[in-house]
């Protein structure tokens, strides 16, 4: 199997029955005398699958449950509140006048009472009969992913159906636990009004079984948005049809019942509202929030419906704990030669989600839906997509960030304390593996030398020489430029200073002069023309480059060059269930108020480009502040040092446009540095490949939030961040508020934007504003969804129509540096 995905195939009751009916001896002597289920599972594994996906129960269980809990109650949703029984009046129509003590009525009442007594006994002591379960032995359940009955309606609009469904759920989970099954797939939620009840039932399962993973099956969005059928609105007393007995056809995505979806028949081309596109994600957010972000709660994404093209809609799932990807064979289409392939949008999405290392659940492979390739063609095709996925290709490429960072993805690392701590040689070794950084440094030094006026002698000072990589690159730059130059190397780490002395004796000789000590306190033999330093952190200034260079600027001549000459911090709002759970594992306030260095993988940047409805928001990733060297406004004492560190205080207030609903778990911090001229370093996601592609030395910084913050569609996020200092420390504080634009003028007749908003008001969701997207109903092509909503960017006079209502805020994080700081 591949490195990024494992594979599982569905084994249905029909498969087991087929094996049971075979009269020929098993292909393997070891299976002689084994159960039909065991033989069916082994047959599937022989096709190369890692797991088998099996329903926990058989149709007989559904029949018994329906008889006790649904049919005996009369109308599932027809009774009044708290009424779990009774007969419909229409059942007596045509029977004539009912006799008070008729034998037929008495027999029915006796039968009803007997079944109700049976149901009550079951509610008290839930249990299975032998013919109601698929597996009965521990060895049968080995390597099995259990599938909970999909007819359980934990979010039914009927109180008693929900109650009895939950009892049945706990019964199935208890049996799966008895068989030591490690993962079960839960039926999808269907009813937005009662999804909290679904979530509460799942949370109870998490508490009852401490080791099992529970994976909620969900489509990317409600496929009813693209179906040419009526979507009934749920009302008190309405009837909900329960899912039928587990079918032997490949599992497909159920329709979701969303309050307010009482639309008429949809035309061939229609607009799917933002609410509809957000519906399943909104339900998932409720479920995982009620379950307190349990790391044992995961997602099984159903890729049966066509996918939207908008990358921001799809990107939100990158931040979620996707454990499985469900691919019914009905999702595949035939290519020109008749072999099964996936639509292009589904291909791209599946490739991108290989970073989750999912288990791909293939169903219906024995149905022969495609003319060529047979049963094995589906897994072979998905393995091809896995091997050609961006994450797999990048991880195999020597020198790439993905190859270098294997094992570090989404792993929280505390930033370095370069002034307080002396780095280990292994740490230097890791940073020195990055060729891109040192190539750019060498190029910057070479250009600075070439631009320096002709002189008999140029002095280069390397401040913070470490083990000497920048000294070596400076010597190469001198050689390339054919200039005469002398190097002074300053280092405070006594252990690294030994390595520098060794390299001076073996490699550099008299061309390099070593000086031991803290650059903020020592003096150097002569002032430098070019000052080179390597003190940057993931946020630019978070390893105290400004404070260190305040002292080192004494070494530089008034007209000297600093490399780097400037660096800028950047910020973006981030969603990541994985990082949020990792940050709160410590169980202390400190762990959620500490910025971490992280190689991002399962994350999603929530912000979009464009000004938003009010036209006041910036780009998706925004600048916070910049430090320049040498400073142009320096106030210095007699030693040439700044009297305080107040000049290094910074603050930023940034406004981000949030096009689609999401959860804010933290802020992503990046930096970009100008070394010299147009030579730089960058980890900015949108510019790093143009400036310093495949640079390994820095991962982004993650500022976590103590509590997730819900951001509605088309909202604005205002982020405040401060860099603060006292005599001993530097620290960051951060805070966020969310706003929704509102009209502050009366609508004018003929205004297309206001008419669109007004037309959508009747179906507006509490959770998402009513922007619309174009979609088509074909199951064979991707849903059409424009790259951006039609009225995001406003002219000034249009933007003036909008005010804003505050809808949420975070706490102030790390106030006074109480949890995290960098020591001076």
TrEMBL record:
Native species: Coniophora puteana (strain RWD-64-598)
- Composition bias (Basic and acidic residues) maps to 81-108
Q: Where is the PRMT5 TIM barrel domain?
A: 48-387
Q: Which GO terms describe its molecular function?
A: protein-arginine N-methyltransferase activity
* InterPro entries (UniProt xref): Arg_MeTrfase, Arg_MeTrfase_PRMT5, PRMT5, PRMT5_C, PRMT5_TIM, SAM-dependent_MTases_sf
State a single Pfam family of this protein: PRMT5_C
- Kindly provide the name given to this protein in its UniProt entry: Protein arginine N-methyltransferase
Q: Where is this site: Critical for specifying symmetric addition of methyl groups?
A: 431
Task: Identify the CDD domains for this entry.
Answer: AdoMet_MTases
An annotated GO BP:
regulation of DNA-templated transcription
Q: Which GO terms describe its cellular component?
A: cytosol; nucleus
Q: Which family does it belong to?
A: Belongs to the class I-like SAM-binding methyltransferase superfamily.
Instruction: Domain (PRMT5 oligomerisation): give its ranges.
Output: 566-822
């Amino acid at each position: 199997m591949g490195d990024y995905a494992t594979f599982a195939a569905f084994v249905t009751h029909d498969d087991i029955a087929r094996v049971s009916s075979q009269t020929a001896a098993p292909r393997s002597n070891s299976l002689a005398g084994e159960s039909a289920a065991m033989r069916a599972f082994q047959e599937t594994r022989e096709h190369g699958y890692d797991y088998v996906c099996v329903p926990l129960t058989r149709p007989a269980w559904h029949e018994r449950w329906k008889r006790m809990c649904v049919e005996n109650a009369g109308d599932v949703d027809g009774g009044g509140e708290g009424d779990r029984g009774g007969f419909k009046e229409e059942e007596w129509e045509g029977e004539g006048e009912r006799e008070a003590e008729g034998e037929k009525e008495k027999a029915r009442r006796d039968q009803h009472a007997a079944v109700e007594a049976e149901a009550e006994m079951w509610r008290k002591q839930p249990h299975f009969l032998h013919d109601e379960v698929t597996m009965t032995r521990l060895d049968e359940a080995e390597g099995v992913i259990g599938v909970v009955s999909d007819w359980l309606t934990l979010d039914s609009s009927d109180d008693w159906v929900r109650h009895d469904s939950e009892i049945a759920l706990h019964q199935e989970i208890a049996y799966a636990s008895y068989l030591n099954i490690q993962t079960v797939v839960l039926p999808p939620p269907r009813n937005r009004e009662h999804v909290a009840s679904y979530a509460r039932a799942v949370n109870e399962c998490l508490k009852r079984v401490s080791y099992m993973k529970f994976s909620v099956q969900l489509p990317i969005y409600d496929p009813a948005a693209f179906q040419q059928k009526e979507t009934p609105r749920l009302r008190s007393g309405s009837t909900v049809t329960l899912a039928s007995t587990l079918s032997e056809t490949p599992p497909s995505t159920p329709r979701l019942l969303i309050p307010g979806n009482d639309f008429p028949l949809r035309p061939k081309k229609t607009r799917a509202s933002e609410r509809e596109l957000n519906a399943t994600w909104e339900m998932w957010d409720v479920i995982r929030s009620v379950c307190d972000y349990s790391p044992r709660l995961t997602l099984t994404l159903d890729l049966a419906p066509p996918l939207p093209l908008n990358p921001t809609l799809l990107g939100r799932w990158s931040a979620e704990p996707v454990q499985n990807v469900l691919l019914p064979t009905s999702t595949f289409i035939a290519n020109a030669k008749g072999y099964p392939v996936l639509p292009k949008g589904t291909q791209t999405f599946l490739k991108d989600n290989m970073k989750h290392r999912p288990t791909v659940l293939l169903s219906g492979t024995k149905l022969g839906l495609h003319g060529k390739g047979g049963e094995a063609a589906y897994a072979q095709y998905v393995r091809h997509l896995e091997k050609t996925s961006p994450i797999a290709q990048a991880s195999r490429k020597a020198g790439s960030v993905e190859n270098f960072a294997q094992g570090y993805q989404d792993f929280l690392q505390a930033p370095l304390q370069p002034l307080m701590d002396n780095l280990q040689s292994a740490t230097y070794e890791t940073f020195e593996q990055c060729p891109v950084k040192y190539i750019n440094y060498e190029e910057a030094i070479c250009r600075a030398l070439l631009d320096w006026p002709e002189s008999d002698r140029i002095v280069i000072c390397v401040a913070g020489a470490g083990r000497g990589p920048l000294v070596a690159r400076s010597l190469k730059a001198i050689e390339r430029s054919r200039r005469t130059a002398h190097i002074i190397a300053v280092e405070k780490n006594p252990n690294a200073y030994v390595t520098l002395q060794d390299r001076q004796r073996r490699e550099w000789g008299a061309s390099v002069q070593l000086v031991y000590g803290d650059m903020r306190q020592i003096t150097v033999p002569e002032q430098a023309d070019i000052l080179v330093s390597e003190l940057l952190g993931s946020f630019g200034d978070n390893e105290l480059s400004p404070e260190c260079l305040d002292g080192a600027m004494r070494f530089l001549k008034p007209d000297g060059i600093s490399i780097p000459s400037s660096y800028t911090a950047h910020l973006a709002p981030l969603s990541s269930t994985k990082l949020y759970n990792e940050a709160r594992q410590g169980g202390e306030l400190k762990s959620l108020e500490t910025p971490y260095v992280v190689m991002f993988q399962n994350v999603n940047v929530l912000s979009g480009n464009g000004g938003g409805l009010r036209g006041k928001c910036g780009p998706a990733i925004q600048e916070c502040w910049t430090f320049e060297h040498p400073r142009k406004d320096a106030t210095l004492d007699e030693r040439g040092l700044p009297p305080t560190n107040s000049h290094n205080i910074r603050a930023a207030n940034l406004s981000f446009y949030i096009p689609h609903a999401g959860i804010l778990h933290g802020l992503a911090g990046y930096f970009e540095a100008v070394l010299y001229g147009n030579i730089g370093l960058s980890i900015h996601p949108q510019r790093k490949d143009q400036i310093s592609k495949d640079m390994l030395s820095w991962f982004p910084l993650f500022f976590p939030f103590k509590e997730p913050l819900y951001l509605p569609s088309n909202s604005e996020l205002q982020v405040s961040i401060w860099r603060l200092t006292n005599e001993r420390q530097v620290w960051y504080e951060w805070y966020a508020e969310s706003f929704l634009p509102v009209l502050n003028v009366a609508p004018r007749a003929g205004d297309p934007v206001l008419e669109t908003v007004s037309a959508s008001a009747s179906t507006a969701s509490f959770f998402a504003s009513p922007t619309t997207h174009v979609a088509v109903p074909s199951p064979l092509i991707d849903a059409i969804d424009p790259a951006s909503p039609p009225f995001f960017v406003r002219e000034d006079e249009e933007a003036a129509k909008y005010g804003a209502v505050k809808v949420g805020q975070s706490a102030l994080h790390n106030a006074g540096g109480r949890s995290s700081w960098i020591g001076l």
